[in-house]
Please model this.
Amino acid sequence: MPGSAIRKFREMRNYSQEYVAKEMGISQNAYSKIENNITQLTVRHVKQISRILEVSMIDLLRDDFEIHRPGELTIESVSRDNLVEMLKRLQLKMQERHPQKHDFYPVMMSLLQAFDNSLNNVH
Model:
């Protein structure tokens, strides 16, 4: 869960919950609920915590997302065309799932866009 990753990075910086909460403009109790996975993170929270703890948003969310090799691919190397096709399917799935109901939709779509841009360098 993302709360445990956030706690880990906060403790690495030797920051108190009170300090991070104050920087975010929320109470220590509200911040504690984020670390304990009681309060669902918003994109705004992730951006704030990322800035305060000086860690990428991806690292904060790493516990929440696992990347698995697509089940339909059985070959060792993946071609650019396969990646493009998988990316398109993933984007369609994301767009079909009512983006206004998902706090991470903008983050996921920006990651997909960055991945799509990086495919231009794949041969």
About this structure: The chain has two domains: 2-64, 80-121. The chain has a mean pLDDT of 76. DSSP finds seven helices and no strands in the chain.
